[in-house]
Amino acid sequence: MPGTTTVEIFGRRFDLRTTEPDERITELARFVDRRMRDIADVSPHVDTARLAVLAALNIADELLKEQATEPGTRTERIRQRVEGMIERLDAVLPSQ
User: β-pairing, 12-18 with 3-9?
Assistant: First the structure.
């Protein structure tokens, strides 16, 4: 059953009709917001519509590259990323 989820992306609120859980839509909105803000950090004079298009192109590029990656390579890359995250967490969390 469709519902409405309100999200904020780059300072604008959007009411989205969706069948997905609110948490999933919020997660996706945060991802897009983060991408737009990353681009705005390096290109502060770009208008919002262009930031959105650039973010969409970057996300699409990543998706297509990921889809073209061999499954074994993808798994190894994920393992390396997880290990990197664990190392960063170990560096900032106190020893127990």
Answer: antiparallel
DSSP-derived 3-state class of residue 8: strand
pTM: predicted TM-score of the whole model, two decimal places: 0.69
Per the structure, how many domains does the chain have? 1
Domain range for residue 31?
A: 3-92
For residues 39 and 35, what is the distance between their CA atoms, to the nearest angstrom?
A: 6
Spatial CA neighbour of 8 closest among 30, 23, 34: 30
**Whole-angstrom Cα distance, residue 25 to residue 36?**
16
28-55 per-position pLDDT tens digit: 999 999 999 999 999 989 999 999 999 9
SS3 content of the chain, % helix, strand, coil (to 5): 65, 15, 20
| Cross-strand bridge partners of residue 3 | 18
